[in-house]
Amino acid sequence: MTQKGRLVIISGPSGSGKSTVLQKLFQNSEVPLMLSVSATTRPPRPGEKEGRDYYFLSDEEFQSRRNAGEFLECKEVFGRGYWYGTLREAVSTGLNEGKWVILEIDVQGALAVLRDQPEAITIFVHPGSMAELEKRLRNRGTESEEAIQRRLNVAAEELSLRHHYTHEVINQEIKTTVQHLCQLLTQYHGETIPCSKN
């Protein structure tokens, strides 16, 4: 019989390096990880595939499934009229297959999931200070001053709620952060499962 997996929630402000950390974590961890695929009402971008990047739903289907309680968490993001959410069935399927399902979601989403799944492992990733976060956002060179300020305001709010997470990881150097997360998940796994050395 397959041992049931665990739910792992990873959050952190924009610019904290979550996506890069997760990419490396999947390459290095021997724990059977699976990234949860979110549902959205926004149209696919070039190169995006159904079921790999998102589950693309119509507004009508999304709201119907929302009303039926099929989402662990969902919200309208950035006021653009597009909805995003985590489908309960997709998560439970992965857990029942023995996968450790990773949810990369914002703090409000995490708090909603925790009300339903209080045993989830929660990890908050950030760069250590608002000054460092602002530096990283500006170094991207991809956003307007207004967008940067909006992200910084959201980040300040998220940082103020990080005490809701079991673990806080400061991402100053990717390799060290990934090693830390590998060790953390291995401890939860209850076995001596090393990270690969790649």
Describe the structure.
The chain is α/β, with parallel strands linked by helices and 198 residues long. It has a single domain, classed as Rossmann fold (3-Layer(aba) Sandwich), CATH 3.40.50. 41% of the residues lie in helices and 19% in strands. The protein has seven helices and nine strands, in the order βαβββαββαβαβααβα. The strands form two sheets. It has a five-stranded parallel sheet with strand order 2-7-1-8-9, with helices on both faces. The radius of gyration is 17 Å and the shape is globular. The two termini are 31 Å apart. The mean pLDDT is 92.
Helical residues, percent:
40-55%
Radius of gyration: 17 Å
CATH architecture type: 3-Layer(aba) Sandwich
* Beta-strand content: 15-25%
Overall 3D form: globular
Structural category is alpha/beta
Q: Which fold name is given in CATH as the topology?
A: Rossmann fold
Oligomeric state of the chains in view: single chain
What is the count of structural domains?
Answer: 1
Short account of what is shown:
The chain is α/β, with parallel strands linked by helices and 198 residues long. The chain is 41% helix and 19% strand.
Features:
alpha/beta; Rossmann fold; four-stranded mixed sheet
